[in-house]
Automatic annotation (TrEMBL):
Residue ranges constituting the Leucine-binding protein domain according to the UniProt record: 29-356
Pfam families noted in UniProt: Peripla_BP_6
Residues of the signal peptide: 1-25
Protein name according to UniProt: Branched chain amino acid ABC transporter substrate-binding protein
Species for this entry: Paraburkholderia rhynchosiae
Length: 379
């Protein structure tokens, strides 16, 4: 009998300890993140991941309480390699992992096909960098972005080229991705409207390394500028080979080429490049300087492009959790339309499609390989 009593006491003590442990343990809530973490765009994808990670670490350090529960955030990060098919596979994995929201994807060509999977699952998706207008024109209630679109970015590039650079003729090249084609097409529309002559329209691909055939053709047309729709991994070598072939045209590009790494990829030809970014320049962001300092202290190097937007995306998701007083994905989605969040990148107010109501396009050039702000245009 004495043995049984001791056993019962031991079991009761174990049960009490387990109960107490459960009561005080943080509930783990997963937020997904997707970007290319391998391949030629990995530096940009890792930059986005770093921004999201920095936000997660800060929020966990401060402590998060939702509906009386202590929450610990976990970033469930996935590599889509910039490939649309892989993007849908990792999107489904995140759904299966029970993430409450997703920061991503980075590229328009991966963000768009993945968006249907998140929509079907009722999971919020905030892209920090996808600019193709089609992303938010699908009628999904789950799609949001923290950048202006190519329908705003490309006309800004064309208008600047016509008014400031006196460009009268242009050759257009894209990398055959949803992003590159969309940017080039929107640029072409505005260029034609401004009376700029389109010398040629060509396509390469986002894995290409040799552009001499296209550039030789372009050189024969002698345009004032070349507009390239694509990323820095191909845009840099494209610009470099253009200079090597003696092409004198100015090089125009969008946010895909507009990175600090461009000068490394293009060499001295970076000084021929004028590019745009949808959003405020870092030095003009309300909290840009402080964020840059935090980022460099945490990672030991400067940020690339969209880390501030990825950082803000995490905070917007948490803001929605607080307003919904829930970590239920559907309740998070339900409160997103009335979001009014002031973050590193500025005020995030969304229209009915999930696009920012107030956008800014920043234009840059490179001086001795350093990226410098040229102008800002409010949209």
């Amino acid at each position: 009998m004495r043995f049984e009593s001791g056993l019962k006491l031991t079991m009761r003590a174990t049960l009490i300890l387990a109960t107490c442990s459960t009561a005080y343990a943080d509930d783990v809530v997963k937020i997904g993140h997707v970007a290319p973490l391998t391949g030629g765009m990995a530096h940009l994808g890792k930059d986005n991941e770093n921004g999201a990670t920095l936000a997660i670490e800060e929020i966990n350090a401060k402590g998060l309480l939702i509906a009386g529960r202590k929450i610990k955030l976990l970033l469930d990060t996935q590599d889509d390699a910039g490939d649309p098919r892989t993007a849908t596979q990792v999107a489904q994995k995140l759904v299966d992992d029970n993430v409450v929201a997703v920061v991503g994807h980075m590229n328009s060509g991966t963000t768009i096909p993945a968006s249907r999977i998140y929509s079907d699952a009722g999971i919020l998706q905030i892209s920090p960098s996808a600019t193709n207008p089609a992303y938010t024109l699908q009628g999904f209630k789950t799609t949001y972005r923290l950048v202006t679109t190519d329908a705003q970015q490309a006309p800004a590039i064309a208008t600047y080229a016509a008014s400031k650079l006196q460009v009268r003729s242009v050759a257009i090249v894209d990398d055959s991705t949803a992003y590159g084609q969309g940017l080039a097409t929107e640029f072409e529309k505005q260029a034609r409207a401004l009376g700029i002559k389109i010398i040629s329209r060509d396509a390469t691909n986002d894995r290409a390394v040799d552009f001499r055939a296209i550039l030789t053709k372009i050189k024969g047309g002698n345009p004032d500028a070349i507009m390239y729709g694509g990323m820095d991994a191909t845009g840099g070598p494209f610009a470099k080979q253009a200079r090597q072939l003696g092409v004198k045209a100015k090089f125009l590009g969008g946010d895909g080429v507009c990175s600090p790494k461009l000068s490394e990829l293009a060499g001295q030809a970076a000084d021929d490049v004028i590019c745009s970014e949808p959003g405020q320049a870092l030095q003009k962001m309300p909290q840009g300087a402080a964020f840059a300092e935090k980022y460099e202290k945490r990672y030991g190097h400067s940020l690339q492009v969209y880390a501030p937007a990825a950082y803000d995306a995490v905070y917007i998701i948490v803001d929605a959790m607080k307003r919904a007083n829930s970590t239920d994905p559907k309740k998070i989605v339900a409160v997103m339309p009335v979001t009014d969040y002031h973050g590193v990148t500025g005020e995030a107010l969304f229209d009915s499609k999930g696009d920012l109501r107030h956008g800014v396009i920043s234009l840059y050039h490179y001086v001795s390989g350093k990226k410098k702000l040229l102008d800002s245009v409010s949209m």
